[in-house]
Design brief:
Number of helices: 12
CATH architecture of the largest domain: Alpha-Beta Barrel
Bound molecules: iron/sulfur cluster
Number of strands: 12
Radius of gyration: 22 Å
Number of domains: 2
Largest sheet: 10 strands, mixed
Helix content: 25-40%
CATH class of the largest domain: Alpha Beta
Distance between the termini: 30 Å
CATH superfamily of the largest domain: Aldolase class I
Order of helices and strands: HEHHHEEEEEEHEHEHEHHEHEHH
CATH topology of the largest domain: TIM Barrel
Length: about 425
């Protein structure tokens, strides 16, 4: 999915920041452990892991509860921090398991406070380590974390830069939860966070990471089990405790998985719609060739728990002369009939080689007016973090480019060739 800005959730356009990104290596880059991580496991899985190292059944429940508390409520990143666990037990846990964070390759901070991390995960089986991006968008009263579910994407949406990169692999539940853990560490949102940036821009009140949007790299419903398991950890009331009403799962329309997402995850749903006719959507979102708009709308109408309080968000990128006519707006209203919905209009953010241009402002406003008059909220989203390329569909490849730039700059300073 393309990256959301929290404007999509509030309807409040944010100021466009000046081009002034700050890039720096994160201060701490924990070395990854080859031992299995307990992060991302559910309680039963932790119990099985503990049984595997010889804990007796009567101990397992208590130890699992302790671990859960330290990992997710306190934010412990090492067993040593678990002061009410006996020394021997801590040593035993340390020998067999890890609870560390993914490696932070870079951390960029926008002038508007948006923060983007490039995180590195180890290879799973054959292959090289992989990198994904996670973006934090602070606002008045909320802090939204945009989380990735895959490395690359199979779906090749024609307006999306991430879609130009082939899928490398799915992320595991551990790696999805790990993105939340890194953000909370760096923002100081855990009592035991050890790598906090004291200058982080955060909401003035409430939780620093209050909302999650599964809108980073990848199509979450094509990595269903890992996304479900990770979000269940994120929603657990004795741990990270994020409300399911503050988590949005975004799909480009994997229709058969939508009922399962409602039943087994139960978060808010967003649909990357972008076109109201099948011929055009086939081109913009090629998945439409398999699941047509009518089928998608039926799945939305039947989404479990759908109500005015739990509306579906429809994402609609504004492409000049392609999908932005008044007739398109009217057809959109017709399509959404009977679905409690909100429409996010996203000004297209061109990337090198993209074949589209953004609609002009008047056209976007006219489109919004038609949708508004029909009774649907239709905030126009202004991308956040533009200066650090954290906007829609710019994840991963853009950061690789910035890393290359940074390497060159560094090479010029030290007289090297800029290679790793
Ligand atoms: S190609 Fe499509 S599904 Fe994949 S990340 Fe981009 S918008 Fe999302």
């Amino acid at each position: 999915m393309t990256l959301a800005s929290p404007d999509s959730l509030t309807g409040t356009p944010s100021a466009i920041p000046m081009l002034h990104g700050i890039m720096k290596e994160a201060e701490t880059q924990p070395k990854r452990d080859a031992k299995p991580s307990l992060i991302g496991m559910n309680r039963d899985e932790i119990g099985i892991a503990l049984r595997g190292i010889g804990l007796e059944d009567r101990q397992i429940r208590m130890r699992t509860a302790q671990l859960w508390h330290w990992m997710y409520l306190r934010g412990a990143s090492s067993f040593d921090q678990m002061t009410n666990v006996s020394k021997d037990m801590r040593v035993q846990l340390e020998q067999h398991f890890a609870i560390g964070r993914p490696e932070i390759v870079t951390e960029q901070v926008s002038v508007d406070g948006t923060r983007k991390w490039l995180l590195r995960f180890p290879p799973r089986g054959a292959g090289r380590p992989v990198e994904v991006e996670t973006v934090y968008i602070p606002e008045e009263g909320r802090g939204t974390l945009c989380v990735s579910s895959q490395v690359g994407c199979t779906l090749t949406c024609s307006f999306c830069h991430t879609g130009t990169q082939k899928l490398v692999r799915n992320l595991t539940a551990e790696e999805i939860v790990g993105q939340i853990m890194v953000a909370r560490d760096r923002l100081g949102d855990f009592p035991l966070a050890t790598s906090t940036d004291p200058k982080a821009a955060v909401p003035s009140e409430g939780r620093l990471v209050s909302n999650i949007v599964m809108m980073g790299m990848g199509e979450p419903l094509l990595n269903f089990e890992a996304v479900r398991d990770a979000l269940q950890v994120a929603m657990d009331g004795d741990g990270l405790s994020l409300s399911r009403r503050r988590i949005t799962l975004s799909t480009s329309g994997v229709v058969p998985m939508i009922p399962r997402a409602g039943a087994e995850i139960g978060t808010l749903l967003a649909i990357s719609l972008h076109a109201v006719r099948d011929d055009l959507r086939d081109e913009l979102v090629p998945l439409n060739r398999r699941y047509k708009i009518a089928e998608l709308m039926d799945a939305c109408r039947e989404y479990p728990g759908l109500s005015n309080a739990r509306r579906i968000t429809f994402e609609y990128v504004m492409l000049a002369g392609v999908n932005d006519s008044v007739a398109d707006a009217r057809e959109l209203v017709r399509l959404l009939k009977g679905i409690p919905a909100k429409i996010n209009l996203i000004p297209f953010n061109p990337w090198p080689g993209s074949q589209y241009e953004c609609s002009d402002w008047d056209t976007i406003e006219t489109f919004a007016e038609v949708v508004n008059r029909a009774g649907y909220a239709s905030p126009i989203r202004t991308p956040r973090g533009r200066d650090i390329l954290a906007a829609c569909g710019q994840l991963k490849s853009a950061s690789e480019k910035m890393r290359a730039t940074e390497r060159l700059a560094l090479a010029a300073m030290v007289g090297g060739n800029g290679e790793d």
